[in-house]
């Protein structure tokens, strides 16, 4: 476990732990609902939500080619971030999520920095990520932490912005 300060701790955790599972469900629900509310004025269909969560359980976020970290504030699971190696030098930042009640407390930066440390431990020298236009706060966070927009490295359906940073 890494103690970041008096209130934040961050540590690697298995993708299938109870806290990781709950955070992934909240993260996916947030991403999906945001998209559907923006484009179709509705929330995610519960059956679709279950199908998509089951299809992406996080199995790529395990050593030796990945990692997942959970941030806790005063002991409570507050957020998560994952990394996975794309090739010998690049890691991709995935599943950055902070529960709403912890936003604005510095936790998102703590998570990204912990994920960057995990990427370094995996041997990465560069971190990349993809995100959407409507995630304005996330894009501002990445830029504040030294990420710059790069050319697309994926053709993911919902990706609209790609960022990279030398580690």
What attributes does this structure have?
about 35% helix, single chain, alpha+beta, about 170 residues, Aminopeptidase
Tell me the total number of β-strands: 8
Helix content: 25-40%
CATH architecture: 3-Layer(aba) Sandwich
The main sheet comes to: 8 strands, mixed
The first-to-last residue Cα distance is 21 Å
Mean pLDDT: 92
Given helix and strand content, the structural type is alpha+beta
Low-confidence stretches: none
Radius of gyration: 15 Å
CATH topology: Aminopeptidase
The fraction of residues assigned to DSSP E strands is 25-35%
Can you write the helix and strand succession as a string? EEHHEEEHEHEE
- SS summary, helix count: 4
Oligomer: single chain
**For this structure, what is the CATH homologous superfamily?**
Gcn5-related N-acetyltransferase (GNAT)
Query: Shape, please?
Result: globular
What is the domain total for the residues? Answer: 1
Strand order of the largest sheet: 1-2-3-4-5-6-8-7
By CATH reckoning, the class would read Alpha Beta
